[in-house]
Amino acid sequence: NAGVMQNPRHLVRRRGQEARLRCSPMKGHSHVYWYRQLPEEGLKFMVYLQKENIIDESGMPKERFSAEFPKEGPSILRIQQVVRGDSAAYFCASSYDGTQYFGPGTRLLVL
Amino acid sequence: DAKTTQPTSMDCAEGRAANLPCNHSTISGNEYVYWYRQIHSQGPQYIIHGLKNNETNEMASLIITEDRKSSTLILPHATLRDTAVYYCIVRVLNQGGKLIFGQGTELSVKP
Fold it and tell me: Mutate which of A102, A107, A108 to disrupt the B interface (most B C-beta within 10 Å)?
């Protein structure tokens, strides 16, 4: 059973561009979580989704960030008009029974 | 979710047991104790979890005190590859439970 997949693993964007991060959960997992880790800081929860529904987005910045988990395909974390402060590692986790399993992360660098 | 307290850092000699403590004195009856680790900015790795009984798997053992106010993660024969930040998290086992990561314990396994 393949683990949680994230791509790209590294992403470089210039200020003002859009970043799209993808997460494919483990087979059979219908719950997806996104976390962010800023440089030299801890992991912070962003959003929790089930298929086609956002359940908890209490950790999402109010502007420029959005997430979706469509019926078919991976979950997408979208950051519009990126700024340097968005540079971070973004981790996705998936679960079936409550235990969350993490992917390898996407490292976003904004120039 | 209950708050946890862990030592900031610990050292362990390679081949010896690593015993990582965690205090969670305000834990509720339906909250589980979870352990994750993060090896040098990789995705967090699930280790083990338990409610009140001691648990063991291929990675580690989890010892929970009878009053459930503290626990210890035991890596029986630490290797250099066990060097990581270890996080103790308490949460209700349900799909809506986001993980709240504290500072964790930075474990250094030395030759």
Answer: A102
